[in-house]
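In this supplementary section we document a worked example of the pipeline. Step one takes a protein sequence of length 77 as its only input; no multiple sequence alignment statistics are reported here. Step two produces a three-dimensional model, which step three serialises into structure tokens for compact storage. The input and output of this example are shown verbatim.
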Amino acid sequence: MGQQLTVFGDNQLATVTGIMKDMPENTELKTDMLMSMYNSQRDSTRDKNWGGFGVMAYFLLKPHTSPEALQKNSPLF
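The serialised model returned by step three reads:
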């Protein structure tokens, strides 16, 4: 925790702010690292440059929440 890693091969530094458990084998999220899209001052214009980031959104539902009801109320997703 708190250590800095060089990422993306261009000397961009990222600070470790959390450690996650191994993901289950049946997950769609196959990754070794997750990081914010906004890590430095140079990333501040990223919301104005809509490129293909391959971004996915995930929801953590409260216990007893119906995924079907959520999907029905969110047809655009």
